[in-house]
Amino acid sequence: MSGDILERTGQQQAAEGSTTLSDIQDRLKRAGLKVTQPRIRILQILEQKEGRHASAEEIYRLLVEQNEDVGVATIYRVLTQCEQAGLVKRLQFEGGKSVFELTPEHHHDHIICVRCGRVEEFHDEVIEARQREIADQAGFGIEDHSMILYGLCADCRRQSADRRAQR
């Protein structure tokens, strides 16, 4: 079942398609932010980034590789402004390192490989419904939540099994 959940999330991402320059410009304007080259480039990178998670340092490295002249301080400032405007979501996984993704249209949770750092997104309505039930029973109204599962991905589990077999 979990494979189906991950697969559906991937299909949803593929259906979203790629965002055009004018889409990004419109998004910035609607958020009340001035359209600047650093903001455009950073949002484009987050749009194109597989899994849509990137640290400020990764964004900087990608911009340098593309001969873009944007400093690390500017990247952090733009990410913070975009987060405050609701365009970007900051996530902190194991180790407290911040990564960013475009604010998703639909809620999703994450599963992270503790060895290689691979991140998969998933959505499961049964889990979501159970969380709402628990909140209701405790007298809470959920405003926001996140769930992060930690484990070993199939590749890392296979590598571990191969190492054990070689002993």
UniProtKB/TrEMBL annotation:
Its main location: cytoplasm. Residues 1-21 are annotated as: Disordered. Its cofactor is Mn(2+); Fe(2+); Zn(2+). GO terms for cellular component: cytosol. Residues 9-21 have a biased composition (Polar residues). Gene3D superfamilies: 3.30.1490.190, Winged helix-like DNA-binding domain superfamily/Winged helix DNA-binding domain (1.10.10.10). One of its GO terms (biological process) is negative regulation of DNA-templated transcription. Homodimer. Keywords: Cytoplasm, DNA-binding, Iron, Metal-binding, Repressor, Transcription, Transcription regulation, Zinc. Fe cation binds at residues 107, 109, 128, 145. SUPFAM superfamilies: Winged helix' DNA-binding domain. It is found in: Cytoplasm. Belongs to the Fur family. This is Ferric uptake regulation protein. Binds 1 Mn(2+) or Fe(2+) ion per subunit. Zn(2+) binds at residues 113, 116, 153, 156. The gene is fur. One of its GO terms (molecular function) is zinc ion binding.
